Amino acid sequence: MSAKVSDPKQKARKRDPDFIKAEIAMQRAAQKAREKARLVGSGVAILKEGKIVEEQNNP
Q1: I want to staple 38 with a disulfide (CB 3.0 to 4.6 A). Which of 3, 46, 48, 57 is the partner?
Q2: Residue 2 belongs to a domain
Q3: Number of domain units in the chain
Q4: Strand pairing partners for 32?
């Protein structure tokens, strides 16, 4: 009988499919928000380097 030593660093963690789909949905929503802001000539509030800033879309 052999003893298996499980090393948590070597185990490949499987990502939860729900989290993968949620990430994709958030990216899609962010893109739509940027597009809507561009259409009305506005900016989008984002978190950058720990601060909330307005991202302007300069044409």
Answers
A1: 57
A2: no
A3: 1
A4: none
